[in-house]
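Quick start: load a record and inspect it. Here is Right handed beta helix domain-containing protein:
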Amino acid sequence: MNLKKYLFVGAALMSVSFFAACSDDENEPQNPPVEEPDEPNGDDPEGPVSLEDQWNNTNTVTWPADTIINLTEHYTVPEGKTLIIKEGVQIIASTEGVGANLLPVEFTVNGNLYCEGTEEKPILFSIPEAERTEANVFAGKWGGIVAGTTCEEMLIDHTIIEYTGGDVLEGAPAAQAGYYEAGDDAYPQITTNNVNGNYVITNSILRNGVSDAIYMMGGNAIIMNNLFIANGETGEEAVNVKSGCQVDVVGNVMFAPNTNALKLSSSDQSDVRPQAKIQAYNNTIINAGWRRDSDKGGGIYAEENVSVHVYNNLLVNCKFRAMTPGLDNLHNIEGGYDEANSTIDYNYYASGSQEVDPSYVYEQDINYSWEGYNYDHEDYDTERVDLNSVIATQGDSKDPQFANFDINTTSLTSYTYDDSWDFHLTASSPALEGAYSANASDMAPLFGTTGLTVNGETYTTPAPQPYFGAYGAE
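Running the structure step on this input writes:
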């Protein structure tokens, strides 16, 4: 996998207009239109088929490779239907707003969605190219992908999703469906809601969003080998998991989430929303938590009866180490994490020498990562968590010796990603030793053997690696 290659997706693809191609065969792919021309096409007096009308007489629609889809209205994959998006497709959401309330364009998936990008030709969900600016990183220009309670399967492979996080307003599809509350919520890049759904998100980039990158309110998921950048403006996470979920989070690089890279909770647990279970290992987390002006966040956060195994992660220049709030109420469904069935240990916390920007003021008067790691925080479970972890101090940075990333240079509050960075470890890296390397069954991935089947293909989670972080040695 080479994430660097798809940081530079060109916009010079040809936008092609397709016309009706309906068939009695419900499995025959249908070609997508773009916006209708001002004048009818001479060869097709009825003009191109609209995006909504594509679903007439078919259960499967395919958007062919290297085409551009311009969304000026909300788009929905209907329940029981399937949309396949091929490599190189660009889905461009208008930022003008929909209807009288100027609602952010929302991409709703009530059926199945298969994004089949490739390393050379990733799929792009974005906004018009001229608006992809620094000023719009947290402007929330559109609504993201919202998978509903009837979405059974979703594949996001080699796909870039960016500039999301518009406010959920009155009349928005997600508000009408009860997924979000109008006036109080902003759209993540990806939302899931079906506790029985299967979701694979891999080899993709989720960046520049006001809210969480992935917000799971239900489903079985493998989240692996992705790059997360600048997720959250004021208090959001890279991966946020609630009850009704079973998730493997493996091999990801998470750069500058506002609060946590991993927010793991079993909140709202019930008979129909079972306990959340998450295995999160071999992830590299950098600059987490510093853009949130509070004592919350900094990389890993486990609460409200969640069952987790979080280990072999490499955290660099984060504000705090793993937090487990509610320690005084561990055995209550609304209290702390399920410590009897959890492990948060064998993680590596490195700290550069740089001081935080003085314009960021924290109640704890923390100015360096090593200070946060060693702070006497009430949410640090010192009896159970990180007992075997490597933790930097003022005199020992625990520099993991990346192939190309100086831990002492990048501002702690920076969210600007440099594609020349290389988070592989050098041969002499201390992060190559000391990781968890046993094979206890409860530390194994949830979907390492049975896998998750999406679109007829079974995806399995890779086994834990005996080093810290996502990449290991070059």
